Amino acid sequence: MDGPPATTRPNALVRRLQTAVRVLRARPRLLKALQTLLVALMLGFCAWAVRSEWSDAWPRLQHARPGYVALSFLTVGVYYLVFILGWMRLLSAWGIRISYRVALQAEMVSMLAKYLPGGVWTPAARAVALRRSASVTDTPTVLASVFVEAALSAISGVIVFTISLAWVREVHAPLWALIAFAVLLASLLHPRIFRPVGHKLLKRFGKDDIEPVPFPVMSGLLLFYCGTWLIGGFAVWFMLLSLGASPGLSTVPFLGGVSAVGAIVAVLAFFAPSGIGAREASMYGLLLAITGAGPALGVTLLNRFAITLVEVALFAVGIGAWRLSNRHHD
Q: 266: burial class by Cβ within 10 Å (0-12, 13-18, 19+)?
């Protein structure tokens, strides 16, 4: 006997999810308990990551130059604080305007959620955070913005990495695979593909249609994200200096591209919390093109520790700002 048509199955799934949401809303204590459990799991995985990375990074940090270490951590923080502006611009292109404080909170919640195994937690956490802190109920558009943000960031990272090879030679990287991946993402953002695919996926969440981001906005954001990878390149450059290496300033674009490749690999390795292991392996291999094995390993460990520490710190800042805002309104 034939089953129900394939087109009805997603609708049935959505109805079940909507029923589950109504049940949870009718039981606020259960909902709060589940939210507390999820936050505890997220913080637990994050604490595990910090402890593991600290034990690996500490032997290298003992001999590092404190000034350059501080500059590298500060630059990583600047990268995140600037990166948020791109997401705000994407949301505003779709008519959703939020404050920087709200965007910071949502972004940092999603950054910590990536320490949970599985790739679904990051966009889900951001959508939930916006709903709770800014009453943004257009979840499909928020999810679409997360995808477009990730796609543009990845494409720009591949662009920066490819251009940087004009200054750095003897790099053993799957360049054509990276370019093919960037082309695939760019094709998904093309209006003729984005519109029907977005309609098919987002209608399951109750949204009939979503317009592609205007080309001028898309182009501007692509250049913007290229700039963010250069900021990331300066962070890695300072890390190399802190460990006694002497890379030239011309290596900054390459180092930004290395960070981008590591981030892409981490996203694709969704089965690992925050892509731990996959990012480090790719970054270490690429750094060998400009430095020795010792500094490359040290920077790889230091970079992982810096990312986690800065994400936790910015999350704490976002929570503090949220509490101060609530007290002010009260």
A: buried
